[in-house]
Design a protein that fits this description.
The chain has 238 residues and is an alpha/beta fold. It has helices spanning 23-28, 73-86, 97-103, 105-118, 170-189, 199-202, 208-217; strands at 33-39, 48-55, 89-95, 126-130, 158-162. The radius of gyration is 21 Å and the shape is globular.
Length: 238
């Protein structure tokens, strides 16, 4: 009687993504590369943070680096120190819930990106951006009607947009991890005074517990009111 036939060879190798495929040619050309990524865009409460990670020369990234959403909290935390040692410079840029309400999400996102680059001590010459959009600049008309619309100083920097860049580019993935760790820690720090919202676990996102707490307790000053959150019958701020 014939035994079971293996359909695939036992020594199949897994092809891993080259996380320096975008950085390598730019660094070889003498560019100073910065990868950027954001966290908190879809949250109902708390700030939006942008991470920026700079490389000036080619170096192998820490083992296990990947899109922050694919990593456990423990793995993200453990990567923090190796990533800070690996890169030449890193920074964060933030916009508050109030700024998101005042400027709209898209313009606020570009402001956070520009703040992250402004906070660097190294001046990058080429920006790698996660996703399809040039986040250095805001679409025409997005600042229409906005009082004291902020200036986007770095809107003309050379850039490359990369779909799923947080899983394909080392600097973008590193920016994603460092920003995620920082924002999670911030939301946890706000939890004790606002236990009912569950921010230590949901990090400000729209979970059932968070939405139920909004219905019961109303909006906090950290909530993004322009998003027309559920408890319009509870307009007070905690």
């Amino acid at each position: 009687m014939l035994g079971r036939v293996n359909r695939y060879p036992r020594n199949v190798s897994v092809v891993r993504e080259d996380l320096l495929q975008f950085e390598r040619p730019l660094l070889d050309a003498g560019e100073i590369v910065v990868g950027i990524d954001e966290v908190g865009r879809g949250a109902l409460a708390g700030p939006l943070l942008v991470g920026a990670v700079v490389l000036t020369r080619l170096r192998t990234p820490p083992l296990g680096l990947n899109d922050s959403k694919k990593l456990s909290p423990q793995k993200r935390e453990s990567l923090g120190a190796p990533l800070r040692a690996w890169c030449d410079e890193w920074s964060l840029g933030a916009v508050s819930a109030n700024e998101i309400d005042a400027w709209g999400l898209r313009l606020a996102l570009s402001v956070a990106v520009n703040r992250a680059i402004e906070n660097l001590r190294v001046a990058p010459t080429h920006v790698l951006i996660d996703g399809p959009l040039n986040l250095l600049d805001a679409p025409a008309g997005s600042a229409a009607g906005v009082a004291n619309a902020p200036t986007l100083r770095f809107c003309d920097l050379r850039h490359t947009t990369i779909i799923k860049g947080d899983a394909r580019s080392a600097t973008i993935a590193a920016a994603s991890v460092l920003a995620k760790v920082a924002r999670d820690a911030l939301m946890v720090s706000m939890h004790d005074e606002n236990v009912h919202y569950g921010w230590s676990s949901n990090k400000g996102y729209g979970t059932a517990v968070h939405l139920a707490a909004i219905e019961r307790h109303g909006l906090h000053s950290q909530h993004r009111r322009s998003w027309r959150l559920p408890p319009l019958q509870f307009p007070h701020a905690v």
